[in-house]
Amino acid sequence: MRTELHYYDIYPKVFPAGKEVTITIKPLGYHAEFKNPDDIVLKIFGLDDGDPRNYPHRGNGYEVPFEFDGCIKFTHTFPREQQYYARIYDKNSNKELLELSVYALDEDLCGRYPLIGDLHMHTCCSDGRQSPAIVCANYRKHGYDFFAITDHHRYWPSLEAIDIYKDVPIEFNICPGEEVHMPKYGDDHINDIHIVNFGGKYSVNALVRDEYYRNDKERSFEGFSCPDTMSEEEFRAEIDEFAKTLDIPEGIEPFTYACCVWVFNHIKKAEGLGIFCHPYWLSNVHQVPENITDYMLKTHPFDAFEVLGGENYYEHNGFQTHKYYEIKAQGYNFPIVGSTDSHSSINNENAYVASTMVFSPANEREAIINSIKNYYSIAIDGISTEFRLVGDFRLARYATFLLQDYFPLHDDLCYEEGRAMKDYACGVEGAKETLEFISGRVRNQREKYFAF
Asked: What is the pTM of this model?
């Protein structure tokens, strides 16, 4: 976290462009106090408005009057959407003493709060390492606002995680989910394309009574009505018939593509988000043949493309990013997400290497899904210490500000809740009371920093 954020608080940080807003700059400790307010000036710089030394007629870097009561308070109308610097100078020497940032937004983003989440990861209930409750706590400690456990073939671990924390107030949104793998048979009935059902209210895996099927009680979320189950033979026959209704080009396996579309259709019926995952994952060779990747992206029966995933070699995220921008340049568009696909939430170089920032009116399952479907998301590559963003340029600019000036403060609160969540899951005395005591702090911080 930047040193100035340790020394000073500035709020609100985000507000509507073109509307008057009162901003406070508060020292955090007497070491940071403004000793002689009469000897300082406050100037505002628009990040996009040019260096005033080189573009003097644009009016950037203008002085703004302020009131002082130990804090600096000023009222101003920031004219258009962009990041602004509030810089404090010594009046006599013109030396810069402090720089803090704020962001003005156009109307469509006002009322949408930034949330960081992961839509694809695993626990020890499939091929991961930790139990669902512990994975939840570890992700919250790392600053995540929402996620879904998406174990292979299994929906029930996500329900287990939701159930464990149902009686305690937490601000971490645990959604239902699964990674969908339908049964294979012979050479003509194979679909190994990985698909995530994020937030769906029923299990797609459990539509077929295969070796992973457990019981009807674990098939749905909050009593949502599920379709009837079927045998493996009935499933293959249904996909074969469904394939005949699709205009599948030569060179693409009919069962493979039809099965994908069938799965995505069921995820939509379950009110979830269907995610097409990691086609450039190296599993012997690239997991998905190139012509299937191209056809899938151009027809996009999915809801979102996992443009960033949990591997740190270049081919995985690098090729997926290139493919996304290449296909988009050809006139095709679809929402994107980033996820870790982690199999351990501790001591794992692939943990937390990718995530999704969603701009949503609420940290709720339905609101998050709708926001992603409406293109209010951006993928974050956290492999290196310097983050990289994939997605819409406008959102990338805003997300950069948030990752530097908001989320470090947000993550401090999340760490404390995550630690208490782990204690609660492990039966530590007093953990429930701790969670009850700190509940609402993230909401209060959000309301302080976002003036919507």
From this structure: 0.97
